[in-house]
Every structure is written in structure tokens, then in C-alpha cells.
Design a protein that fits this description.
Blueprint (H helix, E strand, L loop, with lengths): L1 H43 L1 E2 L8 E2 L3 H7 L2 H32 L6 H9 L6 H11 L6 H8 L16 H26 L3 H9 L4 H12 L1 H17 L2 H7 L10 H10 L4 H35 L1
Antiparallel strand pairs: 1-2
Helix pairs in contact: 1-13, 3-7, 3-10, 5-11, 7-10, 8-9, 10-13, 12-13
InterPro entries: ABC_transporter_permease, MetI-like, MetI-like_sf
Subcellular location: Cell membrane
Family: Belongs to the binding-protein-dependent transport system permease family.
């Protein structure tokens, strides 16, 4: 009996200790994650200009109004376009560069720095660089095209609604490929050399070695790159806003820039909050399968 009471007291003490240590992260999570989400949803049910003392309750009106706005669906379509591009563009180019460099090219360390360096530059600086490059009269791209006799193909890269998104994607490709390259390159270097040598002994060509041996073993790296690409596509804001402000004529607008413009340009805080809730739901639908697969793979690896 005394032993039972001693064990019970020990468990109670450990429980209190665990609760004390958990209280800080739980409190921080509630204050900085749960509360802002609940507060944003509550604000989305009101009409408020940011200055009046009391918001007016309007229910789901902000959500309904957005569903009848072509501007909202255009921004959503742009987000989906960015999602497809970021999943395919920087990911494929990063994998290609990593595969080429993994073959033992001369000056490997120099190329690694060159490929990864753009990713270390802040988004605003990237936007400033590419705005100068895309300048329609004296920009670097236009100047180079004129010097090689292609001046007639020069465009107002950021001023033409039909090509502005492609111009932005070009700058994004230059900026983000370094991350995919680094992850894939690290993954290739972690593949056991014995697997590669065994495939070569069996007579596999370099392409077969990559496609049938290396690439399947890059699945963990691929999950990381694709997951980050999906997150980046949903939260995309800084480079679009810094380069075009969502223009011209809302052609390059995404949900995050529309939310910012609605809140601080039109002072419709409730409607901007509704956009953020839509964005949160859409991002959750897209990203949750990735989190599920990642958690499943972690569980499988622990079971092994």
C-alpha cells in the first residue's frame, strides 16, 4: 500500500511538471495562432472600415459578395497558376541542376554557390533587380534583345496584362530554384554509393541509374520541395506586390495582394478578413494531403 501511494504521488508530480513545461508553448500557440484565426473569422462577419468604434454585423454577406466578384476568382485562378508553376518549374530545374552537378563537374563548389545564391536575397531586393531588368526602354532584357537583333520582340514586360504573370514567374524561377537545387543535391549525396555502383555493374546507362535508382530514393527530398512550393504558392505576396502591386488592371493579383488592397486600400476590413479565411481554407485543402503523407512516412520509418 505505501508503494502504491508513493507511485501515485510520483505520477501526480510528473503530471504537474509536464503541465508546467507545456503551458508556455500552448499559451504561445493559442495567442499567436488560434486567437488571430478566431479573431479574423469574427471580423469577417462584420463590416468595418478600421476607424469606426463598433463594427457592423453582416453575417456571411462578405463571403457571398466575394463569390459574385470576378476579381476574386481571377486572383484565385492566379494562385492556382502559381501553384502549378511552382510545383513544376523550380522543382524540375532544381532537380536537373542537382543531377548535373552530382556527376562530379569541375568547379562544383563554385556552381553550388552560384545556384543557391539568389535564394538568399530578400524578396524586395529580387523585385528591384527584376523591375530594372524588365524596364521596357532601358532594361537589361530589352537591351540584350536589341543587341542581338531581337529588339522587335521586346515588350512592356510588367505593363502588359497578357504577359505580366509570365514575367513574374521568370523572376520567381531565378529566385527559388536554388532551394530545390540544394534539397535535391543533398538528397543525391545521401544515396548510398553501393546502389549506384551495383546498377552500373548491371550495365545501366546514366539515365537508367538516375531514373530507376536515384530518383525513387529522392522521394523524401521531393516531398519537402513540393510541400514548400505549395505553401509558397498560397502565401505569395511580396514579390508580386513589390513588382506590380497586382497590376496592371489586377492582371497579376493573387489572393494575398487582393486582401491587402481591400484592407488598407479600400478600408474594407471585414471583406479582407473573408478573403483571408477563404485563403486559409483553400491552403488547408491543398496542403493537408502533403502533411498527411509526410506524417505517414515518418510513422512508417519509425516502425521500420
Amino acid at each position: 500500500m505505501p508503494n502504491f501511494q508513493l507511485m501515485r504521488r510520483k505520477f501526480q508530480t510528473e503530471g504537474v511538471t509536464h503541465a508546467v513545461f507545456l503551458s508556455l508553448p500552448v499559451t504561445l500557440f493559442a495567442v499567436f495562432y488560434v486567437y488571430p484565426i478566431v479573431s479574423t473569422f469574427n471580423l469577417s462577419l462584420h463590416s468595418w472600415d478600421g476607424f469606426s468604434p463598433s463594427p457592423k454585423y453582416v453575417g456571411l454577406q462578405n463571403y457571398v459578395v466575394l463569390l459574385h466578384q470576378s476579381r476574386f476568382f481571377h486572383a484565385l485562378l492566379n494562385n492556382i497558376s502559381w501553384l502549378v508553376f511552382l510545383l513544376l518549374g523550380p522543382t524540375s530545374l532544381g532537380l536537373l541542376l542537382a543531377a548535373l552537378l552530382d556527376r562530379g563537374m569541375k568547379g562544383e563548389s563554385v556552381f553550388r554557390v552560384i545556384f543557391f545564391l539568389p535564394f538568399t536575397i530578400p524578396a524586395v531586393a529580387v523585385a528591384a533587380i527584376w523591375r530594372w531588368m524588365y524596364e521596357p526602354t532601358n532594361g537589361l532584357l530589352t537591351t540584350v534583345m536589341r543587341s542581338v537583333g531581337l529588339g522587335g520582340l521586346a515588350q512592356n514586360w510588367l505593363g502588359d496584362p497578357s504577359i505580366v504573370n509570365f514575367a513574374l514567374m521568370g523572376s520567381m524561377m531565378w529566385w527559388t530554384t536554388g532551394f530545390a537545387f540544394l534539397v535535391f543535391f543533398a538528397g543525391l549525396r545521401n544515396i548510398p554509393v553501393e546502389y549506384i555502383e551495383a546498377a552500373r555493374i548491371e550495365g545501366a546507362t546514366p539515365w537508367q541509374v538516375f531514373w530507376k535508382v536515384s530518383f525513387p530514393l529522392l522521394w523524401p527530398s521531393t516531398i519537402v520541395v513540393l510541400g514548400m512550393a505549395a505553401v509558397d504558392a498560397m502565401r505569395l505576396f511580396d514579390i508580386v506586390w513589390a513588382m506590380t502591386n497586382g497590376g496592371p488592371a489586377y492582371a497579376s493579383e493573387v489572393l494575398a495582394t487582393q486582401m491587402y488592397d481591400t484592407a488598407f486600400g479600400r478600408f474594407e476590413m471585414g471583406r479582407a478578413s473573408a478573403i483571408s479565411v477563404y485563403l486559409l481554407v483553400i491552403a488547408g485543402v491543398i496542403i493537408m494531403p502533403y502533411i498527411y503523407q509526410l506524417a505517414k512516412r515518418v510513422q512508417d520509418s519509425e516502425a521500420e
